[in-house]
Amino acid sequence: MDARVSSKIQDVFEEPACEHNQNKSAKEKKKGCTKQLSPGAAAGGCAFDGAKIALQPIVDVAHLVHGPIACEGNSWDNRTSFSSSATLYRTGFTTDINELDVIYGGEKRLFKSVREIVEKYNPPAVFVYQTCVTALIGDDIEAVCKKATEKFGTPVIPVNSPGFVGPKNLGNKLGGEALLDYVIGTAEPEYTTPYDINIIGEYNLSGELWQIKPLLDALGVRILSCISGDAKYKEVAYSHRARASMMVCSKSMINIARKMEERYDIPFFEGSFYGIGDMSETLREIARLLIQKGAPEELRDRTEALIAVEEKRAFERIASFRSRLEGKKVLLITGGVKSWSVVAALQEAGLEVVGTSVKKSTKEDKEKIMELMGQDAHMIDDMTPREMYKMLRDAQADIMLSGGRSQFIALKAKMPWLDINQERHHAYAGYEGMVKLVEEIDKALYNPIWEQVRRLAPWETEPTPLVKPEPEPAAAPVAAQAA
């Protein structure tokens, strides 16, 4: 493995902002929080995929995958990250290396690919992603990117995160390291205000960022940069001028938040946009940090006034659903920040969470789950499909909320299912998103299709005989029997 990649991985493993790491010995810290990948677990699992997930929502740059075409094919458009302007991020670029490139090296092909992108599309930057094959044959993408930047005058950013180095969350952080090394701090905004913030680890899935932005606009708070949902390259480049940062998912990009605090004195906190109560607490914390950094004190009063209006409106809208959802049991199969943030949202609607997965959750995530669900919270580390099916079939849960890969288990059990992961087509963030989540759960639970699919098929009812049975012989008369 490249020494530079090894150094970055070790730096990520020893992340000092992670409370879990703070309790480890020096020897344990070096082991990190990763584990070896299982064969075939690349989709949604490898470090390359994690880096691309983290950076692809930067909408105006070209994302070039240096490797076989399958790497780009498997990772392209696997999230519904929306854009309000540029669409270049939805174009798949790959060097499509072949057997000869493996033998002779793929650096020349990479340089030519960058030149073709710059000449045809003229993007503000090109992000080049290392993959397993090109890392194993020794292609030096840092050197190629440096030469291409000098030659074409366009920033060409190496993202050295080959899939074999670890799982997706490690790739998220290595993508963040590329931004810290080559992008953040390289440009200046036209102007700054005392109300400028960064949002880190938010990917604008199904347009969720757009449900939060109007709330911040109402307070006069400006999102200087979102890393990386609906972001433009220049916004990430001048994100170091923000006054405060909000971390949405510490599992993916806590290294960016921590290093920006160290380098540029930008304080940060971890919050959630899911659920009415958590959304209100997030707005309060944003106001607190901005006031701490010099914003006027009246921001606090305006924040409380906005929260009062929005909470009243949201609770009124979900009140009509509460009687229908009260006591319904939910099995939540997700991970990371959603393992606890969505729990709070479901409880506000009167739903009971009978289990939540923690496979991709940190120690802090688990502590928050216990705060919400109690010390006896049913936290599922790695539930097998057979166990999920049994739990649903035995009616221990009325509905399952999960990603698309688990939906067929619920459908086989003839139980309602709702997509809560990155492939979803509805935005559930903020006050408006909470109302939408309740509406969608109600639709799923009371959809008449479930009554129909649970009926026995005609061949599963009492069978109708195909051959008419012959009549039994009539009994002999009593007198004849006596004779």
UniProtKB/TrEMBL annotation:
Top-level taxon in the UniProt lineage: Bacteria
Iron among keywords: no
Residue ranges annotated for the Nitrogenase/oxidoreductase component domain, each copy included: 46-445
Keyword Cell membrane appears in the UniProt entry: no
Pathway the protein contributes to: Cofactor biosynthesis; Fe-Mo cofactor biosynthesis
Region (Disordered): 462-483
Keywords tagged on the record: Nitrogen fixation
Role of this protein: This protein may play a role in the biosynthesis of the prosthetic group of nitrogenase (FeMo cofactor).
Entry's family note: Belongs to the NifD/NifK/NifE/NifN family.
Family matches, as NCBIfam families: nifE
Protein name: Nitrogenase iron-molybdenum cofactor biosynthesis protein NifE
Source organism of the structure: Viridibacterium curvum
